Amino acid sequence: MEVNGLIVAASERLSLENDNGFLFTVYNADIDIHFCILASNISTAVWKNLVVNHYYKFTNLKVGALQTSLGGKVILLKTTSCSTYAEIDHLQNCKFEIAENLKAVISDPRTTILSGNKSIIGSNLITYQGFVTKVKDWELKIYELDSKVSLYTTFNIYCAVLEKGSEVIISNVHCIKDSMGSVVLVCCGLSSVREINPIKAKRKIFLFTNGSDFLRNVLEYFLNVDNKISSKKLSLPEEYFSEPHRCFPFSENQLPTYCDVPYLSDILDEVTANISWILICPKWKIYINSQENLVIIGMLYLSTSGTFYIADQTLELPVIFTQECENCLHENNIIKDFENKDIGFMIAVQEYDIIFENISCKNEDFGVAEYHGVKEILSKGVLSQNSVITCILYHKEYKDVEILNDGISRKKLNATLSLIVRDVFFQESTISVYLPYISENIFGLLPGAVLELHGFLCFCSQNSNFYLRPSSKFGIEIKKHLKIVDGRHSFPEDDANLLFQQLTKISIGNIFHLPFNRICFILKIISAEVFSVCKNCNKNSREKCCCLIPRKVKVKVSALIDDGNQPLLAHCCGEAAKKLLNFTEKEWQDLASYVECSNQPLKFSDKKYNKIYTYLSFINQIFSAYCSSKATCRKLLFNCIYIPNTNPPVSDINSVWCKRISDIVTYDHIKLNFMKLKNIGKDNSFD
């Protein structure tokens, strides 16, 4: 059978029982009929090139039927192994022979839906042609067309990823508006997206605050909601053939009645109920909670002090971006999206770390603080214990510093962070400040930031140049920016424009530590504890807990490991601790059952092992003997966060917090290192 006409609708790729295919709706004006064609049994790569609003001639078709998921049946024309198509001019479009009874059977009455009218919930169905000017999110398939229109192909599973520079034609796409009044196009099963010219683009987070139906469906589509209350998604044929038009992104009867998206306060309440502190020094302890299941939904914004926050109606929390996740934007790259400080972005975060710190303080009398400028320091060359230096940051770099050791000059192998600061009023007065190398990434302190340096000492180099180094108690406080007025500040005129751009951004500095993967050998277990806590109040002793609810068993471990360059003190808990202790699932269940039934913790300490061994219970003796044996000494792959040593007189060993510990898969590890070495994939340092 031969037919011809104008294609007025095309589906995305259908997943059929034995094949893939496409649905097309064709209109022939000469005989006034809409009919559907199911293209299958032939390479889908051929038929996906058909474009809506173009005229085609089809040959060797047959009458067939398509079963829908609800048991319905649609009579249409189907392709055969001999079917072909050819694009024709609208003048070549003409009548074709068709029996009246067959015409009545295959005729599709959906003439109004495909003519730009509204669907049942009020969004227009339109056809749009334009160029992809930005890829906002690869995974959610969110794009920008012609620098003004946003396109969501999120719900079109088989829609190819579009690329920047592509010319696209989108037909039967929902047209709505966001909170700023900008046009947003949302594709459904009736929509057709055809791409022409591809070029690469970067990712970006996008704010969408209007159209609650669509936003709630995005949450239902990507988050874990209660299966009992979430509705069944419409199949693609059901969306395509629905009359009036219904689809998953906008169908009210498909909306979940409740999306379980926790507030920030709920997440913190749950995490704080299971805190297991790691003591770093007598006055500082930390806890790091790695989350993969509790999704954070909130507004990301940049404060006037230059700190990123995520907020909802219950809390606002400071945020630090890292380069660990290739799907995340690093802080240095995302700042440009916040040039307008009044703009925030609604984001969803799947994997993140929550860091808690408990810092105690003892008041000490240092007397009245003495404030000095850089010029004054250069003239005196001496600083008292209470001195505070007010200065302006001008330059920052890493360098090797020569130091004297018994009169012999030698170079330090590790780099030191060097800051060059200037006097607030006298531009010619500069001095170098050397800080300990504690992290691979220190950023956020921009040129022009006004700093107050506390607890720094003044030294004189071999070349009779003064420089500053921190004492055991030091701090850097960022005050505010200086404005460039009449070009009279202490900055080169060539840098004025660049400096002004920097000064209008942020002044606050963040010093933090990125996770890294490293193969380490476990030297010995320092301490280990298996204990039970109340699920409600998290107390680890029944005498202090009055809750009549079951308890749960937890484990935490500290071990001495070696990465080939230096020994490290590794802290971990949960699954990472079980892996470090080399427990099988049965062994862990036996220990957990004992602790649960006896309400007695199992403890091991390398320092006290020989002294208290005979006083321990029989099971605790076995546990201690196991921890002190070589059964745990082996090589593993550690995913860690580096924690600098803050108490060097006691120990020169730095600590790491282990997020994950896994066996070494040689092939995967070599491949990862090769990719890092060639700068493929993640932009991480080579471990």
UniProtKB/TrEMBL annotation:
GO terms for cellular component: CST complex. Keywords: Chromosome, DNA-binding, Nucleus, Telomere. Its main location: nucleus. It is found in: Chromosome, Telomere; Nucleus. The keyword DNA-binding applies. GO terms for biological process: positive regulation of DNA replication; telomere maintenance via telomere lengthening. InterPro entries: CTC1-like. GO terms for molecular function: single-stranded DNA binding; telomeric DNA binding. Belongs to the CTC1 family. This is CST complex subunit CTC1.
